Amino acid sequence: MTTMLIRGGRLVDPASSVDAHLDVMIVDGRVAQIGAQLLPADGMEVVEANGLVVAPGFVDLHTHLREPGQEHKETIASGARAAARGGFTTICAMPNTEPAMDSAAIIDGVLQRARDVDCRVLPIGAVSKGRKGHELTELAALRDAGAVAVSDDGDAVADTSLARRAFEYLSDIGIPLAEHCEDPAIAQGGVMHDGAVSARLGLRGQPAAAELSIVQRDITLAEAAGAQLHCCHLSTEPSLLAVADARARGIHVTAEVTPHHLCLTHEAVAGSGDDLLYDTNAKVNPPLRTEADVQACIDALAAGVVEAVATDHAPHAAIDKQCEFDAASFGISALESAWGVVNSLVDSGRLTLSEAIERLTIGPVRAWNLDRGDLTGLGTLQVGAPADLTLLSTDAVSRVEPASWASMGKNTPLAGHTLVGVVAATISQGRIVWDGREH
Q: Superfamily assignment of 57-375 in CATH?
């Protein structure tokens, strides 16, 4: 029987409305007891958490692990190590692999390869076969194999007829369609936000209307089918307003925002110096938007219109970014900087600590109804819940140094930035998988 006592920390569990100095006892991978000044049994491992926040392990609804097929960018094992360093104990793996996760056999293969890694991996199945947008996958078979959602992320389900049928099937299957909200007919191959910066740089812009078009269409389709729409990585104020309105009308719509859309604008592409940077590490889809959009993302997160901060961790090999801007791949490696970005908003007074932790724990769990079966209690520190915890410093200052990251993807426009907040340790299913206090 494995046992552990985490003592001396400030326990913050938004799901239970707990914020107090309490100890946590773990037995056989589950939370066994919560209380003040608990005494360790003989031989029990003791983790000292003085001066730290003890929170449920973070849950990421949107991670790209690249395996199978693109292991030169990331593997399931390396992505899980990066997740652990970022405080994440559960990550949901997007299906834009090679081959795409469009069959029960491929879903099962991912789950088998993820059995002994540093965090829990929950696969997301593809909506269409090969993610080509022409023919639906066997959606029920994907769910039965372990898929917690379906998505063609990287691309929208652009064919409206296909999207309508997907929502109709999903209304009976009971998992969400996680949509990449980008209308290709409006985006027209844009490589950054359509605005003053794209005009100055001479780059093709992607207008905010490309996002809003799919958000509005899918709200209509989801409402008609009685199914759940989950809007991935929203980036614009109009889209967030559309989601708020739909939720007010009782439509089953959930949403996420990324750390980079909470802290960066399209100015990051140009850089801050006299020379135009054309920073390919700031090339992401959806693109970085305006300051008003950043503030709208923060406001929607604080208000609960957006349930989850999701990293959209998109690691790439150096060659994918060290090229001309139009040819560079979209994506930011984000797992290991996520807490620093979110907690910096707490430090500046734009989010409360409880709001920040809630949107990284029970918020995403409730959004996708992940709290079931063996995962009952996920996102909480209630007795009986999985022993997934992260120990956090809310005031330590850290410098973003991608070269030291566990992720194979070092692509981030935050390199060299100073953030407030550090993940001190991560415990996954009762096992310490990251201990930053030793580094």
A: Metal-dependent hydrolases (3.20.20.140)
